[in-house]
Each structure stands twice: as C-alpha cells, then as structure tokens.
Specification:
Layout: H1 2-25, E1 37-39, E2 46-48, E3 53-55, E4 58-60, H2 63-68
Antiparallel strand pairs: 1-2, 3-4
The structure holds zinc ion (ZN).
Zinc ion binds next to loops.
Length: about 70
C-alpha cells in the first residue's frame, strides 16, 4: 500500500513539473510586436511608420521635410 501511495506522489510531482514547464514555454508573446520603422526621404531619419507624413509615395518625418521634398 505504501508503494502505491509513493507511486501516486511520484505521478503527481511529474504532472506538476510538466504543467509548470508548459506554462513557462507558452508565455504569451509581447502584446505589441516591433513597430514598423520608416525613413524620412529628406533627412534620412528613422522613425515609426505610424508618424510618417506620406507624400507621392515617400515618407517624411515632419511637415517641413515633406514641403522640402525628398533628396535621397
Ligand atoms: Zn526628415
């Protein structure tokens, strides 16, 4: 009987270890992936694409550079 109880304890410990390692392995990915970056066609500055001012298919970092236009 004692051996049977020991067997149950071993099974329970293995089960707990497997559950714990699965939790670690399945940690949720970062809520936000890396932000897509773009480059200003005038000054070459890299900045988040979400902030880009797009004109004639070119990305600019600010309104001034959009007005000055691409030079690269
Ligand atoms: Zn710029």
């Amino acid at each position: 009987m004692a051996k049977f109880l020991l067997f149950l304890v071993v099974i329970a410990v293995i089960y707990a270890l497997v559950r714990a390692s699965n939790r670690r392995g399945k940690s949720p990915p970062a809520a936000r992936g890396p932000e897509p970056m773009t480059r200003c066609a005038h000054c070459g500055l890299h900045f988040p694409h979400a902030e880009a001012i797009i004109d004639a298919g070119q990305n600019f970092c600010c309104e001034d550079h959009r007005r000055l236009g691409g030079r690269l």
